[in-house]
Amino acid sequence: MMSSKIKIPLPPLKIQKQIVERLDKIIVAQKLNDELIQKADELYRSLLHNELNAKLKNQKSKLPRTAKQSLLRGKQFKIKKLGEVAEVTSIKRIYQSEYVEIGIPFYRTKEIVELSQNKPVSLELFISEKRFNEINEKFGVPERGDILISAVGTIGISWVVPDNRKFYFKDGNLLWIKNLKDVDPIYLEIVLENFAKNISKLGVGGAYNALTIIKLKKVQIPVPSLKIQKQIVAKLSASQDYKKQLVEQKNKLKELFESVLHKALNN
């Protein structure tokens, strides 16, 4: 059998035990870290439920449809349609003939999903800066604080534009939420993320699944004061930051395990 010819490093038994002991410690640390990541996810979902869902669900059914209000931390907030607190629109169509090899990044659903997950963007399409400037002058382009939300394929994934970077996006693939009125963009992103499953259902039907401007405008969201919105954002952001630290630790433990194993097998 071929396996009988495979050569393996065989250090003294004492060294083998030292290697195993060290690897075991790393494995224990990995398991503990994974448990903490799971608890961080549970904490985030619990906070999100407490801040938005529970109080909203308890109060919503008791109020008239025309004047739905509830309590959030003892203060009133209103249920409003997204179209009442922001402009929901799309963008000027870009044709395939207008793509260039290098220039202004052109985002589709794939790129927005990557950005929403803080992953590197695998840019594939570009338009010329001249064309970008023409569109910007006539129709405007996304700015810091605007939100893009996926409208086909993976529906309901949102991303807040964090700065004034230059980019354009594909009409039909993505919808553009801008000119927010008394709504913090990060808070709105959290709400849209919380209701993503419901939003995705709005795209079902017709020749293909797609979220339309008209449907998105009708999505109802809880709107407390800006002060309360920022408090919710701060609390949930702290929870997410904690999880990010744990994920970074997980990657470091994986690298450490591989490093120890590599040295053991190659010395």
| The CATH fourth-level homologous superfamily of the domain at 74-223 | DNA methylase specificity domains
From the spread of the alpha carbons, the general shape counts as: extended
The strand order across the widest sheet is 3-10-7-8
Mean pLDDT: 83
The assigned structural class equals: alpha+beta
The radius of gyration is: 25 Å
* CATH class (first level) name of the domain at 74-223: Alpha Beta
**Beta-strand fraction estimate:** 5-15%
CA distance, first residue to last residue: 27 Å
CATH 2nd-level architecture of the domain at 74-223: Alpha-Beta Complex
- Helical coverage, percent range: 40-55%
Q: Flag low-confidence runs.
A: 58-75
Count the E strands: 11
Described by strand count, sense and barrel closure, the largest sheet is: 4 strands, antiparallel
Which fold name fills CATH's third level, the topology of the domain at 74-223?
Adenine-n6-DNA-methyltransferase TaqI, Chain A, domain 2
Query: Helix segment count?
Result: 8
**N-to-C series of helices and strands:** HEEHEEEHEHEEEEHHHEH
Outline:
The chain has helices spanning 13-60, 82-85, 109-116, 129-139, 185-194, 196-201, 213-217, 226-266; strands at residues 69-72, 75-81, 87-89, 99-100, 104-107, 126-127, 147-150, 158-160, 168-169, 174-178, 220-223.
